[in-house]
Amino acid sequence: MKxxxxxxxxxxxxxxxxxxxxxRMRYANVExxxxxxxxxxxxxxxxxxxxxxxxxxxPYDRKLKGKGTAKIRKFVEEGGSFLGICAGAYFASAEVIFxxxxxxxxxxxxxxxxxxxxxxxTLYPHSPFVYESEKGSHASSVTFKEExxxxxxxxxxxxxxxxxxxxxxxxARFHDAADQPAIIHCKVGKGNTILSGVHFEVSxxxxxxxxxxxxxxxxxxxxxxxxxxxxxxxMSLLNP
Length: 240
Fold this sequence. Notes:
Layout (H helix, E strand, L loop, with lengths): L1 E5 L6 H12 L5 E4 L1 H6 L6 E6 L4 H8 L2 H11 L3 E5 L1 H5 L1 E6 L7 E4 L5 E7 L16 E7 L2 E7 L4 E2 L8 E7 L5 E9 L2 E6 L17 H9 L1 H15 L2
Parallel strand pairs: 1-2, 1-3, 3-4, 4-13, 5-7
Antiparallel strand pairs: 5-6, 7-10, 8-9, 8-11, 11-12, 12-13
């Protein structure tokens, strides 16, 4: 069975690169898919996990709204797995509230609604988000299974009132952002969905060429073994 990673308009080239590296290290059959193939082929029959990585959520919505989101939702309800990272997590929530009150504000409804509430970001006012830049990147302090680790963050979301919704389990929290939910598991029909507001797929060794500060990279390196354990746990829930 295949692991498919969405690679089309809106997807960050860096997030795609890191997602491909992370999953090709763990699975033999990892391929990319664009909106045309997703909407018009029977990819579901040979796929166990669909991943939508980071980037910009609006192009995802415009390309996949209707036929695409219906196919993805049916795939998961019938037993498939879905992983949404950063923009992929915004896209898979019922409502996007991004940078409210700024020139880049996005406040819209979304169709997938694996998380039935609002994905809200960004989370660190001292590091304002800038598209195609590391200016707003941050080494987030995240708690997972009573362990604290640092993970790469750049524009991600939390999941508002996640505790109130049935079928939602909070897997990790932003320890340095009021313990808001950082990664959640959503049970959808027979399938499983994980949504992450933080980039657990990003390896610190690849951040230097992106222009990240060495201090932040060093902080992330300390947590790299913990990051591997987190990935292993998340994959055990998705079971690709």
